[in-house]
Amino acid sequence: MTSVNWRALGLDDPSELQEGKPFSPEEEAVYAQVIARIDPALPQIVPKRMQYCIIRGFWGYPDRINDTAEAFRKIGEWRKTHDVINIVQR
Question: What are the pLDDT digits (tens) for 28-86?
């Protein structure tokens, strides 16, 4: 696999960005609550880095768990409907 020189492209290395970092214990607890409210197949359809963004993106919402679960469900269903995982092969 080829390594990307992000700096040469004028971009930050994604591994250095917050969305590329693993969940904190508090985020992990929220993630577990969200996953319990959605179809168990959806986490396999949504890439981990996107899951980090979804959890963190709804952090300040008053009804964080339900709003995050709804967004996760919508994103996962859209990816499933459009077979995003296999889009390059098509």
Answer: 999 999 999 999 898 999 988 899 999 999 999 999 999 999 999 999 999 999 998 88
Chain Cα centroid distance, residue 78: 13
Residues 64, 80: Cα–Cα separation, whole Å: 24
For the chain, the structural domain boundaries read: 20-86
CA distances to 1, 6, 71, 90 from 68, rounded to whole Å, are 34, 30, 5, 31
Nearest to 55 by CA among 40, 76, 78, 71: 71
